[in-house]
Amino acid sequence: MKITLAQLNYHPGNFELNTHKMLDAIAQAKNEGAELIVFAELAICGYPAKDLLDFDAFINQANEAVLKIAEACDSIAAIVGAPVFNTSEKGKRLFNAAIVIEQQKVTHTVHKKLLPTYDIFDEYRYFEPATNCNIVVIKGTKIALTICEDLWNLDDVSLYQSSPMEQLILQQPELIINIAASPYSNTQQATRLRVIQRNAIQYKLPVVYVNQIGAQTDLIFDGGSFIMNANGQQIAQLNVFKEDIQSFEFNKNGFLAKNTNSLNENLLNEMGQIEQALVLGIKDYFHKLQFKKAIIGLSGGIDSALVLYLAVEALGKENVLAVLLPSKYSSEHSITDAMALVNTLQVKHHLISIQAQINAIDKSLHPYFNDTPFGIAEENIQSRSRAILLMALSNKFGYILLNTSNKSELAVGYGTLYGDMCGGLSVIGDLYKTVVYDLCRYINRNVPIIPENILSKAPSAELRPNQKDSDSLPPYEVLDAVLKCYIEASMGKNAIIQQGFEPALVERILKMVNANEWKRWQAPPVLRITPKAFGTGRKMPIEGIYSV
Amino acid sequence: MKITLAQLNYHPGNFELNTHKMLDAIAQAKNEGAELIVFAELAICGYPAKDLLDFDAFINQANEAVLKIAEACDSIAAIVGAPVFNTSEKGKRLFNAAIVIEQQKVTHTVHKKLLPTYDIFDEYRYFEPATNCNIVVIKGTKIALTICEDLWNLDDVSLYQSSPMEQLILQQPELIINIAASPYSNTQQATRLRVIQRNAIQYKLPVVYVNQIGAQTDLIFDGGSFIMNANGQQIAQLNVFKEDIQSFEFNKNGFLAKNTNSLNENLLNEMGQIEQALVLGIKDYFHKLQFKKAIIGLSGGIDSALVLYLAVEALGKENVLAVLLPSKYSSEHSITDAMALVNTLQVKHHLISIQAQINAIDKSLHPYFNDTPFGIAEENIQSRSRAILLMALSNKFGYILLNTSNKSELAVGYGTLYGDMCGGLSVIGDLYKTVVYDLCRYINRNVPIIPENILSKAPSAELRPNQKDSDSLPPYEVLDAVLKCYIEASMGKNAIIQQGFEPALVERILKMVNANEWKRWQAPPVLRITPKAFGTGRKMPIEGIYSV
Questions:
Q1: What residue ranges in B266-397 does DSSP mark as E strands?
Q2: Chain B (429-488) residues lying within 8 Å, Cβ to Cβ, of chain A
Q3: CA A48 to chain centre
Q4: Which of A178, A253, B12, B315 could anchor a disulfide with A541, C-beta 3.0 to 4.6 Å?
């Protein structure tokens, strides 16, 4: 049986587009003589569809779209991810389903049993877990059809009471198919291969793994669908961060191993992955919101330089506007460094001084501020004055402002709410400052693109004379290491100190993180590239007086 | 057995404060000769503790706090809500537990079985459901000890496969105790009574219901704990929106009915409830974040007038600063109406023109804007100029800016991001514009407080000459009715049209709501007073092209 893996980029709720893409893939698969085509989890409606799932009309639309797909499946069978109503009187109103279509009819509907409800996942919000697990027979092949998390309940991460495969294996399937919506993080590709490999080896079955690709606001799905044989050997690797449709012959001996040299061609090293993930994140945000043009405030520092580069990669230089917004505290090199990058990337730029606006504000506030010393208020006025101008250009000409905050500063609150925290999308809000440097160096690996002076000068917000980040923050190497323990590993104060960090410093950093939850509540969506990003996957009280 | 209901205001993660409050309540209960004191769900750590629950150190702190409570329970028994580790190798790492303490020892630990995971609830994110349900015997009384949702699985809302009471009733309990963390909404008090009454009648058992009070950022818990007899008759009603500790005698005949006339004294009509809810919401936000002073931009319109009134109620007039920020488009009555309210409420005020700042911005942008017509960009510049000044005063003097957006404008995006959408807390973001009027009239029921002219003039953003809300929005009566169907009832387009609304209008309104998800992503926390508020309880894709 020839099986086609259809790794597509779905738009949540855009049934017309999703159906269209799926029909095209079916046509291609038929052309290649495939007998079965496999789409990703909840392909028909896009993942995550969030509370759209609460609307009856939405589920009905999904059902109609499935029927349209079915019409095209004459010679070919299909597996389609879709939400379906739970017709029992008990439990949640929906199931997360894999629908099997043969001869233009729905022949099986398999329900997902393990519903991830942690980090960015909240599937139990919508879905009832499957009560029974049965294999399906498609064109004579007995298939353990599973949905994403269904394969993830291995012994050492036993988050659920039982695993669907424990039941399914008793029915002697010949093949595991797993349809997934598994988002990218910098550890996920390796984890995914390991998990699927353990299933293959434990159950002595080949596995077809089909993931979606595409960014849905903050979540970036990398695709990277693959095939593994019963011995855990990877046979095929689809593209990462790109749509891909490929067909493979399956018989009683499993899948024929292709030249394994080509397997890794589609894979990237960590910095390469992050770069592609962020570019896709920007591209899809604009595409799916139906915008074309981005505006970026270019400070001369490394963060905005990186975001400008990524925006150009994603949208094309003709769709990106850089705006330099100096104040009297901006250093000479801020302008020259920013202009060097503008020239290298050949993007349009404006240079607008914010000083007149700041003078007007200072004058209006003088009756109240009097002769109080220069402080946070005055610093924030500068940052917010820049935001007003950027947003005005955005509103007038239809640009979307890209935010340039990094994860380190978001963590400790080293940024101005309604100032440099503005933007429709936070591009590098899940990159610690040290990773920002790593990524820039990676980008410069062959040809210098980010000016060397931006990489080598000491980071500064330039909101007061001779300011340096290091005036108020620990060195980024230490800060980032502590933050990673706290945010990504949920390690408490004592556990972090036991790693060898100075107790007072750890305490200070954790306090800064906790004290700035209220700011992050209002931050833009952050493109997620680590297992724990700020945003939907991390929910902390903003008002608790806590120390963990 | 004398039972004390301890309805307290807990701070998430502040174990010291929570323990202190609970020990005080135990002392009072012992004083009153009580034999059992009952605290709310997850009392020890506060509800919701969110991802603090992911930290081992947090669970250990909770455990230590429980042991401190136990020390004080010599003559008295106690029921304490707390998170506990799941010691099995399978399932989520925690249980949501009710811990029974007798003679200074933990004698039983009951796990919650039904874990709400919808709207603002996400308990399955953290907790494993109970596998077994057994009654507990405290001082000879057989008690069906349940935790909040455990009593909510009645036939007509059968969200779960089975109900704990089905098992518990077989063990012949004499009393149901339910410890809860049930947030306020304008329909919740009636629903709660009905649900508990159905349990009382169905199982022929009296019920002790103990809720927490206090606001946790966006969620307002109203308390309103009560006792019901086996016939469903309510025997006692604790205070709403206030801490309250009361003791009641229970014997084999149930609870002795007190004078039922006094029962309703503690209850309020809907507008009275909403007023108290919002006042508590503001008060606790400031108190738990350790702030004292609020700043409000006072436009002369009804929204900011209402927020100013509520802030004064919550924080005291000495802690509230009103700032009038007129531009050349502000009408004469905006100043006079605002000043009338300032004088009535006797709050401090500043009057700062934004015109000089706007002129400076216009000049800076002129090379780019040239002679393009006045539009959204110019309107937003005004709104954002006000925000800069408000935030500057906030940063300089330690005020928290209160946001004044209402639910109708948040819904359709009739507000400026980083402008009038600024603020640490959205006070009336869950009140439709029509409800804003209702509440103001309620506040004025005895003495006119909100100036009549503010109530009678046509609403306007005053961002261009002679602007009226009705220029770009449908009448609020129609808009709000449609929004309520869409947001609170999850009714799709066709279902709403079938209610008799004009199809084109419904389509237009729904499109406006969908198109503004990206703005709401960055809105402040909204005090929740309806069953479906913007914020944590409503998660919609911001980039889907959808129509439901």
A1: 293-297, 320-324, 348-351
A2: none
A3: 12
A4: B12
Q: Residue window 229-268, chain B: list those with CB within 8 Å of chain A.
A: none
Burial class (CB in 10 A: 0-12, 13-18, 19+), B248: middle
Question: Alpha-carbon distance A315 to A323, whole Å?
Answer: 17
| Catalytic entry in B45, B133, B148, B440 | B148
Torsion of CA A381, A383, A386, A391, to 10 degrees: -100
Q: Report how far residue B56's alpha carbon sits from residue A497's, in angstroms, rounded to the nearest whole number.
A: 15
Q: Which two tokens stand for residue A288?
A: 């799916």
Task: Give the C-alpha separation, B324 to B90, whole Å.
Answer: 59
Backbone angles phi, psi at B303, to 5 degrees: -65, -50
Q: With beta carbons under 8 A apart, name residues in chain A contacting B59.
A: none
Q: Which residues pair with B31 in a beta bridge?
A: none
Question: Could you tell me the CA-to-CA distances from A62 to A19, A99, B221, B272, B546 in Å, in that order?
Answer: 10, 12, 37, 43, 12
Residue B452 and residue B73: Cα distance in Å, rounded?
56
Selected residue of B543, B547, B548 to mutate for chain A interface (largest A Cβ count, 10 A): B543
- The verdict on A339 touching B (C-beta cutoff 8 Å) is no
Query: Is the Cβ–Cβ distance between B522 and B421 less than 8 Å?
Result: yes
**Are the C-beta atoms of residues B451 and B428 closer than 8 Å to each other?**
no
User: What is the radius of gyration, based on Cα positions, of chain A?
Assistant: 26
Cβ-based contacts under 8 A for chains A and B: 280
| pLDDT value at residue A390 | 98
Phi and psi at residue A143, to the nearest 5°: -120, 130
For A359, counting Cβ atoms within 10 Å of its Cβ (0-12 exposed, 13-18 middle, 19+ buried), the class is: middle
Chain B residues in contact with A388 by the CB 8 A cut-off are: 361, 381, 384-385, 388, 418
Q: Tell me whether strands A77-85 and A94-102 are parallel, antiparallel or unpaired.
A: antiparallel
* Widest pairwise Cα distance in chain A: 85
Predicted pLDDT at A383: 97
Q: Which of B21, B35, B102, B112 is catalytic?
A: B112
DSSP code at position A127: B
Closest to B37 in 3D by CA, of B99, B96, B130: B99
DSSP letters spanning B388-433: HHHHHHHHHHTEEEEE---HHHHHHT-S-TTTTT-SSEESSTTS-H
- Cα–Cα distance, A15 to A60 (Å, whole number): 11
Alpha carbons B50 and B348: distance in angstroms, whole number: 38
How many angstroms separate the CA atoms of A267 and A333, rounded? 38
Give strand ranges (E) for B267-357. Answer: 293-297, 320-324, 348-351
At B343, the amino acid letter reads N
Angle formed by the axes of helices A270-288 and A302-315, nearest 10°: 60
DSSP letter string, B252-265: TTEEPP--GGGGGG
Instruction: Outline where DSSP puts E strands in A180-263.
Output: 207-210, 213-216, 219-222, 226-228, 234-237, 244-251, 254-255
> Do B287 and B316 touch, CB atoms closer than 8 A?
no
The model's pTM is 0.97
d(CA A511, CA B286): 18
Please report, for chain B, how many H helices and E strands are present, in that order.
17, 20
Tell whether A518 lies on the interface with B, counting CB pairs under 8 A.
Answer: yes
pLDDT along chain A (548 residues), means of 10: 97 96 98 98 97 97 98 98 95 97 98 97 98 96 97 82 94 98 95 95 97 97 97 94 96 77 71 97 96 97 98 98 94 93 98 96 96 95 98 98 98 97 98 98 96 93 87 93 97 97 97 95 98 96 83
CA-to-CA distance for B425 and B286, rounded, in angstroms?
10
Bond preceding residue B116 cis, omega within 30 of 0: no
Q: Is the dihedral of CA A395, B517, A406, A445 positive or negative?
A: negative
Distance from C-alpha of B116 to C-alpha of B442, rounded to nearest angstrom: 34
Which amino acid is present at B548?
V
